[in-house]
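Q: Sequence in, structure out?
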Amino acid sequence: MTEDLIVGKDGLARPRWAASNDMLRTYYDQEWGMPITSEAGLFERLSLECFQSGLSWAIILSKRESFRQAFAGFAPEQVALFTEDDFERLMNDAGIVRNRLKIRATIANAEATLMLREEGGLPDFVWSFKPEQTPAPHSFSEVPTQSPESKALAKELKKRGFKFVGPTTMYALMEAIGMVDTHLVGSHRRGSSGIWA
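A: Exactly. Output:
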C-alpha cells in the first residue's frame, strides 16, 4: 500500500485528497471516475473543470449547487441564451467563482455545445477521444496530467469554439467522467467505472 492511499475507518483505501473530509470522500466514492454520457452532465463537468483551473477542486465542489442554480442547471440551451444582464448577475453572485473570462467561456461553451450537435453531440465527440488503455498509477507521481488524447481533444474543441479547454483541463475531465481510470492501484474504486478492468 502506497503512502498516497489512506485506509479509512470503514476499511476502504482512498487517496489522501479524498480522505480529508466528508464532501470529498462522498464525491470520490460515488461520482469521480464514473461514466458521464449525457449532454447536460458533460457540459456541467466541462464547465466545472473550466472554473477549477488554477483553484482546488474542493472549492468548486463546495460551490457546485450554487453553480447549478446560477447556470440554469447547466442546460446548454438556456446558458447559450444568457445576456449581458445574466453576465452581470453572475459577476455579482458570491456563491460561484466570479471570474470574467471563465463566465464568458462557459456561455461560449454552451453555444459551442449546441453547434456540436451537428457532429453528433458533445458526448459522442468527447468520448471519441477515449484512449486504447488507461494508466495504472501506484502513486500520485505516476498520475499523468495530460495525454496525447487530451491534447487532441483540447485542440479539436478549440477549433469548434470552446474556451478554457487546455490539455490538462481536458485530462482532468477525462478522469472525472471515467474515460481514463487514474484511481490509484489499491484504491477501493480502482476499476469501478465498468469501462476499465
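The first helix runs from residue 22 to 30.
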